[in-house]
């Protein structure tokens, strides 16, 4: 699992943001625009509409994480999404859900994939989950936990690989993320982290092959919607 190291809420300090007069005293116009883009939700009356229980991946079950374990955002408008980070829960799905609902845990991922292939979404993709232990990576990635332990290869089931691959392929298509190991990474590869997941038993070759297959299938379906509809009626 990730942690919230370095994820204290942004402090404006000397770069005061003056909203009432539509003026931003932040030193330069570039910095002003940057602050406004990242602090949009602080402005009165501009909270982005959200549908309670809505999920970003069709078929996922929504269970809300504690608001202490993520930061509200407007991604990809304020922070572009360019990575998927693969985690392992080091426990059961139920224990991960409980931890992510605990405000004292200070960490949570967007999704949990169970050994049975069921997917639980706990944070919207538009929000910044505290999962990677690196603020920049948190702001620009989607975190996916997988039920199990890094030293138990039997925990990484076929159903889990298949469901996670569909999820990751969908995320990559949504945000234009290249399907490669530079952009789909393990928690262990995040700079500054002391985590080792997903560990030596995670089959990256198998997983990436499945992600590419799902990505290609979705691309082909999008190009041939009529043919796809016929197949669904068979």
Q: How is this structure best summarized?
A:
This protein is of the alpha/beta class and 234 residues long. The chain has 6 helices and 10 strands. It has 2 domains: 10-47, no CATH class; 61-233, 3-Layer(aba) Sandwich (Lysozyme-like).
For this structure, the quaternary state is single chain
Specify the helix fraction band.
25-40%
Please count the beta strands (DSSP E, at least 2 residues each): 10
Helix and strand succession? EEHEEEHEEEHEHEHH
CATH H level of the largest domain: which superfamily?
A: Peptidoglycan recognition protein-like
Please, what is the average pLDDT? 85
Main sheet: which strands, in order across?
3-7-6-9-5-10
Q: Please, how many domains?
A: 2
- Kindly report the CATH topology of the largest domain: Lysozyme-like
Number of helices: 6
Would you identify the regions where 5 or more consecutive residues have pLDDT less than 50?
A: 4-28
Shape: globular
């Amino acid at each position: 699992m990730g942690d919230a190291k370095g994820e204290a809420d942004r402090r404006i300090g000397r770069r005061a943001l003056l909203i009432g007069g539509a003026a931003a005293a932040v030193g330069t116009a570039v910095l002003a625009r940057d602050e406004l883009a990242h602090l949009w939700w602080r402005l009165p009356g501009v909270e982005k509409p959200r549908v309670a229980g809505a999920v970003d991946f069709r078929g996922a079950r929504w269970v809300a994480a504690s608001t202490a374990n993520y930061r509200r955002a407007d991604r990809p408008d304020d922070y572009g999404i360019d990575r998927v980070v693969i985690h392992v829960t080091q426990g059961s799905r139920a224990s991960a859900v409980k931890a992510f609902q605990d405000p004292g845990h200070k960490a949570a991922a967007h999704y949990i994939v169970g050994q049975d292939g069921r997917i639980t979404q706990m944070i919207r993709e538009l929000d910044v989950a505290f999962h990677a232990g690196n603020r920049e990576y948190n702001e620009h990635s989607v975190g996916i936990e997988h039920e199990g332990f890094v030293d138990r290869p039997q925990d990484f089931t076929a159903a889990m690989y298949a469901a996670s691959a569909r999820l990751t392929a969908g995320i990559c298509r949504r945000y234009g993320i290249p399907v490669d190991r530079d952009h789909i990474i393990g928690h262990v590869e995040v700079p500054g982290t002391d985590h080792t997941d997903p560990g030596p038993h995670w089959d990256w070759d198998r997983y990436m092959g499945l992600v590419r297959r799902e990505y290609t299938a979705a691309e082909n379906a999008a190009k041939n919607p009529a043919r796809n509809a016929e197949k669904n009626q068979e």
